[in-house]
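Minutes, project huddle
Topic: does the predicted pose make sense with (S)-3-Hydroxyhexanoyl-CoA bound?
PN asked that the exact inputs be recorded in the minutes so nobody has to dig through chat later. Recorded below.
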Amino acid sequence: MSDVVTVTNRDGVAVITLQSPPVNGLGSAVRSGLQSALDAAMADDAVDALVVTGAGKMFSGGADIREFGQSPPPGTPHLPTVIDAIEASEKPVVAAIHGFALGGGLELALGCHVRLAAVGTRVALPEVTLGIVPGAGGTQRLPRLIGVPAALDVIVSGSMVPAARARTLGILDDVVEGDVVDAAVARARRMVDERIPIRRASATDDRVAETRGKPEVFVAFKKKMARRARGFEAPYACVECIEAAANLPYAEGTATEREIFVKLLASDQSKAQRHAFFAERQVAKIADVPKDTPRRPIKTAAVIGCGTMGGGIAMNFANAGIPVTVFEVSQEALDKGLGIIARNYAATVSKGRLSQEDMNARLGLISSTVSYDDLSDADVVVEAVFEDMALKREVFGQLDAACKPEAILATNTSTLDVDEIASATSRPDKVIGTHFFSPANVMKLMENVRGAQSSAETIATIMKLSKTIGKIGVLVGICDGFVGNRMLYAYRRQADFLLEEGALPDQIDKVIYDFGMPMGPYAMGDLAGLDVGWRIRQRQAATRPAHLRYSTVADRICELGRFGQKTNAGWFRYEPGSRTPIPDPVVNELVLQVSADNGFTRREVSDQEILERCMYPLVNEGAKILDEGLAQRASDIDVVWMYGYGFPRYRGGPMFWADLVGLGTIYDMMRRLHDEHGDYWLEPAPLLKQLAEQGRGFGDL
Ligand code: 3H9
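Predicted holo structure (tokens), as shared on screen:
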């Protein structure tokens, strides 16, 4: 008996229980404990059958991800060996599953002869999300149980399968009400008493035989998944393993799976995706806000402003079942905003992703008002009015007077100083920034901006609220553009300079798209609209320091009345009703003209230069942000970029990617660029310099 695996004998059935909180991860100690328990049960004449189960919240969350890539590698036995031994047992083995059986946890269950699950259980093989394939027989046993098409869906998506569906597919044998271990013991006993033959997944063939010698099935599946899987290696590797299951004997298929698993485990993509997994969990931890900080319950909410942003934010509350009151200055503005919300929901219903009933329920949670007096009950208010300090201060003064004293007042600003807004109230400790990303009902990121006086309770409450409304909240400090947009600015600047020096918008966009971003800077600009930035630049013109390099190219585009997709023309042109950017000779001519006007002799700009000139300054700005304490950790910045800007997960975010490139390389390039262009934004960050000289990375901080 080990600390992490216990055994009890119930009615001649050895109940082997994993006891390794929080998720019963199958690390080295658990695997050894499981193997010993198994050996003992096999040798014990008082044991006729076995049940494998997990204590606590779940059956098992799978292999211990922290062991991956460890040096020296974790000890034997390996998970496939343990699972093969379970499956080979002559005594029946029943898995009693509750909570989750994920990855290696589900593979362990697939090695058992029967799988019973409690109501509410969810199972999955999420390895693909970690950049690997299931590596303990999952890609070989699952298709043998449920057939190739279903196995492709389950393994390549990595998504959770609820118990009832898993039962229908054949992943589970039964879903039981009541205590699942009791049911499993009874089932095991019955198998012995009634001499029910043991069924081993690895020994069945009929389901995989259906697709044997049919490569077209896999070709079609790869075609179907191509868009979602763009740039990722693991989904394709999963298909390869399942194809091996269809065409090869079990032992050979398993060897293929093992080979691919080992190769992917060592890949940069898997390292990046594992980094992303832990980064997402780290982000909720705040150094000076202890885990047990009390949080205010959020039972009702209010949103000020029902424009695109405010409407999207209100939808988030309604989607999470939180009643929300939307405030506007006029009934007309309210009607317009509420109309857009209703149309948004209706579009989701028409795509079959929401029922009419759910739409009605959500709309029912949204009420509206033109009076601040109706906000006195709200636990949290999110202000989403026009980005103007005087206006925001006005609104906060009104809110301070109208809302109950304990209510949290949040501002959805993307540029303004939260402290200045807070000073318009008598409760600066309860003021915080909540920077949503557009479209606010879709994008998962929230930059939660702590003010100098935001209390621990306010911060903890808002971080929790982010999770409740299905977002990932990252705590950031006050600076122009906060984390994401400040870094974006550094990248966008260089893109415009490259245009002046010799590149064209479609070349830059293609390099960035091929790197893995959802779109390049120019298609993104067209999508967001170019006029707002133009107006801001016009306002800033008088105060812009003369020594800073400034590209006029973006202004010249706007001067032509080209504001992006909404005018069917921006950096690209658009066919009416289409969102596909088409390179436009008018723009290319204009870029050439700007080069000439600004005294540049155009030159060949390589794709590599584009990547380095855009991405290295972005990383450099991230290093400055870290140094200034505006993000807690480099991995938080990675989360901002993966969730707010679609930075490819298989690169782990810009800071993780930078470590892979090597900070020495990035620092050298930044220094060279700075010497060449003298631009303030290219000045190497002191932290970058320091780490580069020490041969360390952001991950070592
Ligand atoms: C695999 O199985 C490979 C095999 O095919 C082949 C092997 C040969 N390992 O998410 P939470 C930590 S690959 C290590 O906040 P929840 C997590 O970091 C694996 N640590 O809880 C956190 O730590 P901390 C395939 C893990 O209740 C704490 O546990 N499996 C693991 O919201 C709590 O986690 C997966 O990909 C792990 N496997 O959600 C499943 N899992 O407190 C990954 C969790 O220090 N896990 N931790 O921050 C999950 O999806 C969720 O954790 C789960 C619980 C749904 C289980």
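Observations noted during the meeting:
- Residues 22-23, 25, 61-66, 79, 100, 102-104, 107, 126-127, 130, 134-136, 138, 278, 281 surround (S)-3-Hydroxyhexanoyl-CoA (CB under 6 Å).
- Residues 301-476 form a domain with the Rossmann fold fold (CATH 3.40.50.720).
No decisions taken; revisit at the next huddle.
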